[in-house]
């Protein structure tokens, strides 16, 4: 069955009117899985023909706010639209259980109002949390999923994911430097989705906080070298900092093509890759 990768958010912590926060939706038939839940994710899911109530699972790469700030919307929308009958499966690194518990605690007032108002809602959102260790292997319906450690220190732990079905392999690795874990996840993948920065442009900035991101993200050329080294078919760039305008996409592609002979795609919100 064809796997679709929908970039439901290609932005970064820097607000962008055209880019929602980081998230990616994988679809194969009725199997819908969301990786990360940045700002605006539910609206982008709707535009992609999905909704939280259709999700087989949500996977978190790490707990940086830009990757999880709209998880509360995913949880609430899933709860309301399933009329309290569905359970949302959430997977992530250690710390995910506490994070979700705190999200639901923050929603207590809203949950109480809705239970009082709607006879169908007799309890709060149902979630099933699985905290993963590197090397974990599991299935979400037809997807075989492998988790591996990535390198985004001082954020620890961070995870990337490899998804396989009978027709394709996709690697979604989140924010990370090149590392052994990424190589394993992306090996011979049909599509390798990597968050990237342009270090040459960032180094022109005098903003020290912006310069800090240089030491824990892959540069475009880093991602291209990884893609070439492990035999990837398509390199998909997302979460680009600084975000390019369409008339500058060629610069990012040219940098990648210096090191990678395969297809290079620049991600816009709702870019869809069928593999």
Give a structural overview.
With 275 residues, this protein is an alpha/beta fold. The chain has one domain (4-274): Metallo-beta-lactamase, Chain A. It is built from 10 helices and 15 strands. The strands form 2 sheets. Strands 7, 8, 9, 10, 11, 12, 13 and 14 form an 8-stranded mixed sheet that branches. The chain has a 7-stranded mixed sheet with strand order 6-5-4-3-2-1-15. Strand 13 (234-241), helix 10 and strand 14 form a beta-alpha-beta unit. The mean pLDDT is 97.
Q: What's the CATH architecture? A: 4-Layer Sandwich
Structurally, the number of domains stands at 1
CATH class category label: Alpha Beta
Q: How many DSSP-defined strands?
A: 15
Which H/E pattern describes the elements?
Answer: EEEHEHHEHHEEEEEHEHHEHEHEE
Number of DSSP helical runs? 10
CATH homology superfamily name: Ribonuclease Z/Hydroxyacylglutathione hydrolase-like
Report the structural category: alpha/beta
- Measured by DSSP, the beta-strand proportion falls in 25-35%
Shape: globular
Amino-to-carboxy terminus distance: 9 Å
Largest sheet: 8 strands, mixed
Q: Uncertain runs with pLDDT below 50, 5 residues or more?
A: none
Could you say what the CATH topology is called? Answer: Metallo-beta-lactamase, Chain A
List the helices and strands and how they pair.
Blueprint: E1 4-9, E2 23-28, E3 31-35, H1 41-47, E4 55-59, H2 65-68, H3 71-81, E5 87-92, H4 96-106, H5 108-117, E6 126-131, E7 137-140, E8 143-149, E9 159-164, E10 169-172, H6 180-186, E11 191-197, H7 199-202, H8 208-211, E12 218-219, H9 220-230, E13 234-241, H10 249-257, E14 263-266, E15 272-274
Parallel strand pairs: 3-4, 4-5, 5-6, 10-11, 11-12, 11-13, 13-14
Antiparallel strand pairs: 1-2, 1-15, 2-3, 7-8, 8-9, 9-10
